Amino acid sequence: MNTSKNSTLYENKFLLITTILISILPAALLIGTLISNSLLILISLFFLSHCFYKKDFSVFKNKISLILYFFWFGLIINFIFSEIPQNSIGRVFGFVRFLILSISIFYIFNLRNIIFKDIILKSWAILFLIVIVDLLIEFIFEKNILGYSSDYAGRLASFTGDELKIGNFFLAFSFIFIATVYDKIKNIKFLVFLILIIIILGFLIGERANFIRLLLIANLFIFSLCIFKKKIKIFLLTNLAILSIFLSLISYDRIYNYGKKVDTYNDKYYIRYLKEFNRVLDKPFLEYLKYDTRHGHHYYTAINVFKEFKLTGVGLKNFREFSFEKRFIPKFSDHNKFATHPHQIYFEILSEMGILGLVFFFVTFVTILIHVFRTNLREKSLLGISASSFVLITFLPLIPSGSFFTSFGATFFWMNFGVMCDVSNKSK
User: pLDDT at position 164, please?
Assistant: First the structure.
């Protein structure tokens, strides 16, 4: 058996290297953008080398790949009408690295020989487990394994340090990790326990938007599991447990964080945290969103940009240039709230890609999600459901988000996109 495995690995040396690079990609994202982008380029080169070596280009001809080409075609059209083409060119044509990443994962996960798929999932699971331990250490001792700590009250940083982006990483891999563990142990009670632990950690990280997304993924995941096992009671009891834990965490957070003296933190962040919390309580949500959050200013700037460039937007990576201009800054803003992107996916699409871009997004992802979600349910794939749920909640309205096109967020999205398509070929 070992001889057979070694033979498979040797015969597919380019694919093995691609697999190893995909396996360590999440760790590279925690180290820095330069490393992760370098890995993405290498993944593209080695995967294409494998396809040429094997003379196998079938993965580039299936339905999902064709739809992705349609999406990339939309980006190219956007580039043609870009207000500042030199800003957009790298983002548009460099975007192909994410598509190849997604297609390569889709290809590897659909191989009959599961050696390569196992390498990736086990590597991701080990790294995620390390992050879990690191978050717990930081929460208890206020510093992580490497000595990093958050300078923002109520937030955990883990390996991302000052950038405070661990919530995105945690969200992207939490339920892939759970599905991978469940595939090995097949124990529903332990699965539910693991989900509750993940939810508690998601709350402790302190990123509210990502925590809301985590709760939604948890519900989709648990509901799918209950359909597979025909045990709706599990869904009701688990949600009751989640609600109880959530209320307990809210109570703990208010007592622990708000009960302390400001001097304990010795910085401005805790004061800002308190003021923001009080504003949320005192004002209607939309009014609070508009006047009292930095994202609210970005949203209204994006709307003003869209009003002037309705059809094609200003072009990818150009919002940052127009957010300076007075005619786009909302009247209620007393100073310039500069941002590289609007911090909400729909405002980003409308301001940078316009109505035409929104159509390309809608056609691409609605078409694929309907097909893949239905297939994952039929094939009872928890791994596919977890990745599908992550892709789906990426498109939630109103909730703040990172840029869809920047390396950190886009890599997580397209990794999950490739995983969610796992069963589509098998089903066909």
Answer: 77
The answer for residues whose C-beta is within 8 angstroms of residue 370's C-beta and 6 or more apart is: none
| Model confidence at 268: pLDDT above 50 | no
Which residues are CB-contacts of 185 (< 8 A; sequence separation ≥ 6)? Answer: 191
- Cβ(59)–Cβ(18) below 8 Å: no
**122 pLDDT exceeds 60?**
yes
Question: Helix crossing, 268-282 with 232-258: angle to 10°?
Answer: 120
Q: What is the CA 49 to chain-centroid distance, rounded?
A: 28
Q: How confident is the model over 28-52, as pLDDT tens digits?
A: 999 988 999 999 999 999 999 999 9
**R_g over Cα of the chain:** 22
- Give the model's pLDDT for residue 416: 95
pLDDT (mean) for 94-120: 92
CA distances from 193 to 182, 199, 213 (A): 11, 10, 19
Of 38, 138, 28, nearest to 412 (Cα)?
28
Decide if 289 contacts 276 (C-beta within 8 A).
Answer: no
Distances, alpha carbon 188 to alpha carbons 178, 193, 202, 387, 422, in Å: 11, 9, 21, 19, 23
pLDDT tens digits, 346-382: 999 999 999 999 999 999 998 888 888 778 777 778 8
Per residue in 306-353, pLDDT (tens digit) is: 999 999 999 999 998 888 777 777 666 554 566 788 889 999 999 999
Instruction: Please compute the mean of the pLDDT values over residues 289-303 and round it to a whole number.
Output: 70
Q: Biggest alpha carbon distance in the chain?
A: 70
